[in-house]
Amino acid sequence: ISEIPQRRGHLEGGRSSSSPAPLQFSLVIPTYNERHNLRSLIERLSQLLDRLLGHDYELIIVDDDSPDRTWELAQDLADSYPQVRALRRQGERGLSTAVICGWQRARGQILGVIDADLQHPPEVLEQLWQQIERGADLALASRHVDGGGVSDWSLRRRLLSRGAQLLGLVLLPGVVGRVSDPMSGFFLVRRAAISERFLDPVGYKILIEVLGRGDISWIGEVGYVFQEREQGESKVTWKQYWEYLQHLWKLRLDLLPVQRFLRFGVVGLSGVFIDLAVFYVLREQWQLGLTRSAILSAEVAILNNFYWNDIWTFSDLSRQQQGWRKRVKRLLKFNMVCLAGLILNVLIVNLLFNLLGVNEYLAKLLAIALVTLWNFSINLKLSWRV
Ligand code: GDD
Ligand code: MN
């Protein structure tokens, strides 16, 4: 059994070389106290997949150190099925992060996830696989399309589930609205669609993270009936609803350019004060010339702005390009863009004042607003989103 430290973020490999993906398919099975379901799930999955893919697949069980020792059973299964791998994660719990942990160690071109408690009928995998073969980037098992449903849910549970979906629709229409069942935890996704993306989900709903951050254009859905649980119990408590809210909120902030722009604006404002303060010190204390002071103080402000933008405004993007070389590269680009922005600023002021007769101060204000906007979008594209 592999005992593994937790790593966040990227799936390694993908298109770039570091870990090749020589298998067709990797299916992750997250488990927590599923001792009584796992064996029969593995039997059904292996039968189906052997027929479908020969031996060109792997089943990765990711257990979070279950008190019922599911990890022990997982290891037994790995010993008797060559396609099964068992991972035991210690010191961390959580469905979504367990799935990412499994994907990070997966070798397949296609990645998937299925619950271990048999509530997701394994046989549906065949139709999901067909969707992928037809070219889908994401193949999703849904309760809310033809052939889908829930077996015997109380009104309360249905309302909670639909309420969560509705909330997601309001906060993240462009993400949650793309599928009929955003709560589903049974799907396949092309490795290439997520391998370059930084995934950092909270709680249970890994699909929302994949939809929100992945590069997914074609989605295929397949109906399935969510089975009743025969063995063991659900791990869902109020905590999972709270985590869902946190997850939605975090994605919303990360995906909203307006939010980014506001941050960029706040950072820019801090730069103005730094610029003035340094200018004051250089002039009054150091008695430096006007032009020199202006250039030096502007440069200090640019460095300040870069720092905060890198760790705050664009933190999700800079985390995808770690290492000091890349950081210096971003800094140089940012610097160039800011200097170009300065020239643009002067041009705009001249244009407004001399050609259009706009009041000097109003012209300056408009120029600042326009250049900030320009700075933001050019830097986003050129410096951070590379
Ligand atoms: N490794 C790990 N760590 N696995 C976990 C954890 C955890 O902290 N919590 C739950 N699991 C595993 C369970 O063992 C099971 O295999 C699967 O994740 C789903 O957990 P359940 O507790 O059975 O969830 P559910 O049936 O209420 O919810 C399911 O229903 C949704 C449909 O509304 C989830 O599976 C969703 O993925 C699914 O879409
Ligand atoms: Mn379940």
UniProtKB/TrEMBL annotation:
Residues 26-195 form the Glycosyltransferase 2-like domain. Belongs to the glycosyltransferase 2 family. The keyword ATP-binding does not apply. InterPro entries: DPM1-like, Glyco_trans_2-like, GtrA_DPMS_TM, Nucleotide-diphossugar_trans. This is Glycosyltransferase family 2 protein. It is a multi-pass membrane protein. Pfam families: Glycos_transf_2, GtrA_DPMS_TM. Residues 263-382 form the GtrA/DPMS transmembrane domain. Keywords: Glycosyltransferase, Membrane, Transferase, Transmembrane, Transmembrane helix. It is found in: Membrane. The chain crosses the membrane at residues 261-282, 334-355, 361-378. It comes from the Bacteria.
